[in-house]
Design goal:
By secondary structure, this protein is an alpha/beta fold. The chain folds into three domains: about 80 residues, Nucleic acid-binding proteins (OB fold (Dihydrolipoamide Acetyltransferase, E2P), Beta Barrel); about 200 residues, Rossmann fold, CATH 3.40.50; about 120 residues, OB fold (Dihydrolipoamide Acetyltransferase, E2P) (Beta Barrel). Helix content is about 25%, strand content about 30%. It has eight helices and 24 strands. Strand 10 and strand 11 form a beta hairpin. Helix 7 packs parallel to helix 8. The termini are far apart. The relative contact order is 0.10.
Length: about 450
């Protein structure tokens, strides 16, 4: 037992040695050869660490292919060295002036310094290279559909009350400090104004040292609405209780002043709505849904519409559809008028309840069957999909390989697969094509301007 403990502690010491480098670590010269999957420029360098000289990959945010730079090493691991730019000796022709003064410190963007044309080419190359790696070849990739600037309608702000001010913004790219951009070029103007209002409220009412998370969704508001469409969910990240009755009253008054649609706080890790003059709604096709606090919505309205149109094209003519990882029904509910049956499967109870409530209120309740299930642990089996002819599959970033294996064995003709991760999309696509599906086309949808993310819709048939 003593020997085992020594082995574990030695491993921990080695892990620490391979982590953060001293602040006075010598700068390194590196030529950037390409952009890695996370958006950093990548080069190679011989570097001595713990008396051993080894060739390492160097990952440098805000650098571009062809640039010669002097970089400050920050940390080291088996994957390589993370570094930041000290000097640019040779600048790439595709470099541009960032639109945001917080770049590259802010973690929201990877590519403010790169021209949009080059970003689009890089993202498409990322898709094709992953598909080729998994031997999924000959697929037609459609032209990218791009959301406009300042159209992002959801954001996760971080709030910190300091001695003489309150900071509201995003985590820095490398670290946990909060970066407050003067004028973000990504988020909708309503979210930007709310960020300013949150800073003012936090300075006036929060105790020094308080830390919060703020999830914001912007819902479309109709002409009759008395609110601006903003749904805010505040979560206390500190160790001490925060939500006193006085603070809750102040929050409600503040929410009314700024015409919020809904304000919720965390109550024993669950949302408690303390202000909602009306029930905030979002429309998916003809169905009105009241999303729960902190609900996942597509990043932009343009992106949502583009996804819905692609799904509608893939599943045209199908009468019984299963939506796996259904959420609040973003992708399946626009189809409900054409369907005789819809199976919606989701692990989030609140999202699934919102979906069902909206369908029931519309008069289509007899068409709907809901199932609460974690599809990572318990994927749907072929027998459970006996009625289904078409499937919508929209998993999180790590994909759904176990579910794809079951779909391959089921009597399913069509799969519409949505993914925000080209690597897991390609892996899961290979699973489906090995089971006899063909990947007819891929529609890239870029909701994430200046980031390394890209949404994909794949049309599979057999």
């Amino acid at each position: 037992m003593i020997a085992a403990r020594r082995r574990r502690s030695t491993k921990k010491r080695n892990s620490r040695n391979e982590g953060r480098l001293p602040r006075n670590a010598a700068p390194i010269a590196v030529t950037i050869t390409h952009i890695g999957g996370r958006g950093d420029g990548v080069g190679k360098v011989l570097y001595t660490h713990n008396t051993k000289e080894v060739e390492y990959n160097v990952f440098v945010p805000a650098s571009l292919p062809g640039e010669d730079i002097i970089a400050q090493p920050l940390s080291i691991s088996k994957q390589g060295i993370k570094a930041r730019i000290l000097e640019l000796n040779i600048t790439a022709p595709s470099r541009q002036t960032p639109r945001c003064n917080a770049f590259p410190e802010c973690g929201g963007c990877s590519f403010q310094h790169w021209t949009p044309e080059k970003i689009e080419v890089w993202k498409l190359q990322l898709v094709t290279s992953h598909l080729e790696r998994f031997n999924v070849k000959g697929t037609y990739i459609r032209p990218t559909l791009k959301s406009p600037a300042n159209s992002r309608r959801r954001a996760n702000f971080h709030i910190k009350r300091l001695n003489h001010k309150a900071v509201v913004g995003f985590h820095q790219r490398i670290g946990t400090h909060i970066i407050d951009p003067d004028e973000c070029s990504i988020i909708d103007r309503h979210l930007a104004r709310l960020k300013t209002a949150l800073a003012e409220f936090s300075l006036a009412y929060l105790p020094i040292g308080a830390t919060l998370g703020a999830q914001v969704n912007l819902l479309a508001r109709d002409d009759a609405a008395s609110h601006a469409g903003l749904c805010l969910y505040l979560q206390n990240k500190g160790a001490q209780p925060l939500w006193t009755p006085d603070l809750q009253r102040a929050l409600c008054s503040w929410a009314a002043t700024h015409q919020l649609a809904r304000l919720s706080i965390d109550d024993h890790e669950s949302p408690l709505t303390i202000y909602a003059p009306t029930q905030p709604r979002i429309k998916f096709g003809t169905i009105d849904v009241i999303p729960p606090p902190g609900a996942f919505l597509q990043a932009t309205e343009h992106g949502e519409n583009s996804l819905q149109q692609a799904i509608g094209e893939i599943l045209a003519g199908h009468s019984y559809v299963a939506d796996l990882f259904a959420g609040c029904g973003t992708l399946c509910l626009p189809l409900i008028d054409q369907l005789s049956g819809l199976l919606a499967v989701e692990s989030d109870i609140a999202a699934l309840a919102a979906l069902k409530s909206g369908v029931d209120a519309s008069g289509h309740g007899s068409k709907l069957l809901t199932l609460e299930r974690d599809l990572f642990d318990v994927p749907l089996l072929p027998a459970e999909l006996a009625k289904t002819t078409g499937v919508i599959l929209d998993p999180p970033r790590n994909g759904a390989i176990a579910q794809c294996q079951q779909l391959g064995q089921a009597d399913i003709a069509t799969v519409a697969m949505v993914s925000c991760n080209p690597a897991t999309f390609a892996r899961d696509a290979a699973c489906l094509t090995a089971a006899g599906f063909s990947l007819d086309w891929v529609q890239p949808i870029d909701q994430f301007s200046y980031s390394n993310h890209l949404e994909l819709v794949g049309a599979f048939s057999r």
